[in-house]
Design brief:
The chain has 319 residues and is of the alpha+beta class. The protein has a domain of 101 residues: Band 7 domain (Tetrahydropterin Synthase, Chain A), CATH 3.30.479.30. It is 55% helix and 24% strand. Helix 3 packs across helix 5 and helix 8 crosses helix 9.
């Protein structure tokens, strides 16, 4: 009897214990569910950063799923949902990119050392090639531009380098574009910014340019003198044919002299007044050369007799 009562009492105690655990289980489940919901709400914005990706209008996205290029290749602008730990995304900017080529010390074909600066404009035309075929398309294009610049300019002389900049730029663009095509890069323009020459060479070129300018000025001056001589010759021929024109020129000369502010006035005497005397002198030389040379003063057609009135008002003559 005693053994049966002990067993019944143990069963009663175990039953009451299991009943209390069943009563506590709904409370624990509620707490865990509430905590899970709270964590989901709290971590949702943070999880969206890893799940949702926004692509801008000037960008394209290359998506890889488990390391392989996703079907469709390139994703356009908009909102894209990624699977965490499965999808990876690489953005590519389609806008024109510019970079400066570092100054390059180049030895030209005529053994002149120059320093050349250039700038390159390029853009991405194939995002998949830009991501899969080259590790860093911008750095690779920059290094290739520096190498191409040295190779192309090294085969040119200094005079060609200074006078054929447009042609050299086109050659550089063509060479770069051919090589970068497999990288998905399109080279739009290559411009040479500056060419720096050695100081001594700059001085020599400046002296040469100055000498050329002086020679050109002398040529222009000589051409002007030739034209002036032709004009004077034509004017003299006209005056010979028309004595009235010579008289008008004489009056114009008097007017010009009178307009000058000077204390001495020179009145030129026309040589025509002495034409009779000159003819008589020439005839006398023919008939009696000894007497004419000793008694008569010589007067040629090139002599111009003038009357000078000094500042004190006394006239004097000069020949």
């Amino acid at each position: 009897m005693t053994l049966i009562q002990v067993e019944s009492n143990d069963r009663t105690i175990g039953y009451h214990h299991n009943e209390s655990q069943v009563k506590d289980r709904p409370f624990v489940s509620f707490v865990l569910l509430s905590l899970s919901i709270f964590l989901i709400i709290a971590l949702l914005p943070l999880s969206l950063l890893f799940v949702v990706e926004i692509i801008k209008e000037y960008e394209r996205a290359v998506v890889f799923r488990l390391g392989r290029l996703k079907k469709g290749g390139v994703e356009g602008p908009g909102v894209h949902v990624l699977i965490p730990c499965i999808d990876t995304l690489s953005k590519v900017d389609l806008r024109t990119i510019t970079f400066d080529v570092p100054p390059q010390e180049i030895l030209t074909s005529d053994s002149v050392t120059v320093s050349v600066d250039a700038v390159v404009y390029f853009r991405i035309c194939n995002p998949i090639f830009a991501v899969t075929n080259v590790q860093d398309y911008r750095r690779s294009t920059q290094l290739l531009a520096a190498t191409t610049l040295r190779n192309v300019l090294g085969g040119k002389s200094l005079s060609q380098l200074l006078s054929e900049l447009d042609t050299i730029s086109q050659i550089l663009k063509s060479n770069l574009d051919t090589t970068t095509e497999s990288w998905g890069v399109k080279v739009e323009r290559v411009e040479i910014k500056d060419i720096r020459l050695p100081t001594q060479l700059q001085r020599a070129m400046a002296a040469e340019a100055e000498a050329m300018r002086e020679a050109r000025a002398k040529v222009i001056a000589s051409e002007g003198e030739q034209k002036a001589s032709r004009a004077l010759r034509a004017a003299s021929e006209i005056m010979v044919e028309s004595p009235a024109a010579l008289q008008l020129r004489y009056l114009q000369t008097l007017n010009t002299i009178a307009a000058e502010k000077t204390s001495t006035i020179i009145y030129p005497i026309p040589i025509d007044m002495f034409s009779a005397y000159i003819d008589f002198q020439e005839k006398d030389k023919v008939t009696n050369p000894k007497a004419s040379s000793s008694t008569l003063p010589t007067l040629s057609s090139s002599t111009v007799a003038t009357t000078v009135i000094a500042s004190d008002g006394e006239p004097s003559s000069s020949s």
